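Re-run with default settings, no changes from the original entry. Doing this only to confirm the output is reproducible before filing.
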Amino acid sequence: MAESLGTRIAELRRAKGITQEEMAGKLNVSPQAVSKWENDISCPDIMALPQIAKMLGTSVDELLSGHSKPEIQLLPEEKRKNPDDLIFRIIVNSSDGDKVRVNLPVPLIRMGLQLGMKMPQISGNDVLKDVDLSELMGMVDKGLIGKLVEVESADGDIVDILVE
């Protein structure tokens, strides 16, 4: 029998050490509502799913389906896209609440590296000072896609670098 949405919510909540009361408070619902979700009596409102997924450290897709997409994949040569068709994404979520999203085509990154340009989103960030963009691009050329870098600073800033 397939695992239900309620079972997944309950297991992920317990794994994070969050009580039903804490979850309810963060979502502005009653603890009874959370209990009903976990016992498959009712389902959370669709608009609450992104917040629930974030709280539980998962995606909405994984929460609903129970299947996680690997964060990083090494594609066999026959399934690889042309690296020039990929997008290099830098996602910064600061502890202050700032959100920075940089989406750059891989050819632009490659050209910038050839010209010796610096990317302040990476080189200017102490958390990412040791990230070598040339190495990341080499991995992409070998078929690696997905979340290539995930860093959390001592200050609580979270930086992800993905190639999709």
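The helical segments are 5-15, 20-27, 31-38, 49-56, 60-65, 106-115, 120-123, 133-141. Residues 19 and 32 are 12 Å apart (CA to CA).
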